[in-house]
Design brief:
The protein has 391 residues and is of the alpha/beta class. The chain has 13 helices and 15 strands. It has a seven-stranded mixed beta sheet, sandwiched between helices. Bound molecules: pyridoxal-5'-phosphate. Pyridoxal-5'-phosphate (PLP) binds next to α4.
Length: 391
């Protein structure tokens, strides 16, 4: 049936037909608990009534005009996103990669404004920033880059969670204009840096006049228990990128910026046809309202603690379990061996999860997950891990 699709994905042979909250049903009628949320997208779960109503209502009124004209829903969304993030301006696009492209372009404009001929951006090992040419170059994973050379110039890579390495680049590379980093690495294996890491980056950026740019595409929109992960650290970046959960599945991304960074783009410097159209902006507005009205940030923080405590109690100290870590509803269980096979066995038991970086079981359940459902996740994952390690 998939003969005419490019073979971009090694897809699992499963077809989902319907969803409601944390639940999905396949075409055979089998029910699954979705502990992955379409990789951190459906934070409000599937078919959330408020989002469904907003999309249907807006579809019947006006889906698209063009960024040639003012779009009231986009303006309201920008106001609200800036309010919750502490940023000043938003550029809307359609995906995470595009949000990061906008950030990269801002860094280059910023560099040129400071008379740097070839502005460079410091990026991290094991990072993931997307699949466009610039964002795959920024990504710290050779597998993502292989075959797509020549890569884009202007990136300097350092180890993640290593402030010394950034300082060393600062001493040796006058071309640097910005740092781009995930506050917690997602695809790289749910890597949580030292609590002072972001503050350290902020200090280095201030000392050298660089932009601090955070990729919050996976961590943002309440996933870690705050609107954005940097809000756990008392730092304020210059640029923040967001996508994934912003539209709960309706494709929309945003590049948010503050201060000088917010003033870099001028008419004609950047754009996209669909970005922030009335349908996508209305959906995202509803997501923000619902995260608020259902008090889901606090819930994500509390439920995340419960999940971490549950996994730690049941799994830590077991031979083969290397680490259990995370923040809010972004949780990784690292084993000492490749464990991709767990995705299939979890599906057989009616649970959607993911394995990233080869050995890290990644859980990104919807923010609407209840305590009972979280306990089901713990029970199934613990069983799976114990059985897998005993094999
Ligand atoms: C941190 C991060 N940045 C960027 C991206 C790319 O987003 P998209 O797939 O929407 O282009 C992802 C996607 O997984 C991500 O996790």
């Amino acid at each position: 049936m998939a003969d005419h699709l490019m073979s971009t994905y090694a897809r699992l042979p499963i077809r989902f037909e319907r969803g409601e909250g944390v639940w999905l049903w396949d075409t055979e009628g089998k029910q699954y608990l979705d502990a992955l949320s379409g990789i951190a997208v459906c934070a409000l779960g599937h078919a959330h009534p408020a989002v469904a109503r907003a999309i249907a209502e807006q579809a019947g009124r006006l889906v698209h005009t063009s960024n040639l004209y003012a779009i009231p829903h986009q303006e309201v969304l920008a106001d609200r996103l800036c309010e919750v993030s502490g940023m000043a301006r938003a550029f809307f696009c359609n995906s995470g990669a595009e949000a990061n492209e906008a950030a990269i372009k801002i860094a280059r404009l910023f560099g040129h404004s400071r008379e740097i001929d070839n502005p460079a951006i410091i990026v991290m090992e094991n990072s993931f920033h997307g699949r466009t040419l610039a964002t795959l170059t920024a990504t710290g994973n050779r597998k993502v880059q292989a075959g797509f050379e020549p890569l884009v110039q202007g990136f300097i890579r350092v180890p993640f969670d290593d402030l010394e390495a950034i300082s060393t680049v600062a001493d040796n590379s006058p071309e640097v204009a910005a740092v781009l980093v995930e506050p917690i690495q997602g695809e790289g294996g749910i890597n949580v840096p030292d609590a002072n890491y972001l503050a350290g980056i902020r200090r280095i950026c201030d000392a050298h006049g660089w932009l601090m740019m955070l990729d919050e595409i996976q961590t943002g929109m309440g996933r870690t228990g705050k609107w954005f992960a940097y809000q756990h650290t008392g730092t304020l970046p210059d640029v923040v990128t967001v996508a994934k959960a912003l539209g709960n599945g309706v494709p929309i991304g945003a590049c948010l910026a503050l201060g000088t960074a917010a003033e870099m783009m001028q008419p004609g410097s950047h754009g996209t046809t669909f970005g922030g159209n009335p349908l996508a902006a209305r959906a995202a507005m509803t997501v923000l309202e619902t995260l608020d009205s259902e008090n889901l940030l606090l819930h994500a923080a509390e439920l995340g603690q419960r999940l971490l405590a549950g996994f730690t109690e049941e799994l830590s100290g077991i031979a083969g379990v290397r680490d259990i870590r995370g923040c809010g509803l972004m949780i990784g269980i690292e084993l000492d061996r490749p464990c991709g096979a767990l995705v299939g066995t979890a599906l057989e038991r009616g649970l959607l999860l993911n394995v990233t970086a080869g050995r890290v079981i990644r859980l990104l359940p919807p923010l609407v997950t209840t305590i009972r459902q979280a306990e089901m996740i713990i029970r199934i994952v613990v069983e799976l891990v114990r059985e897998f390690l005993a094999e």
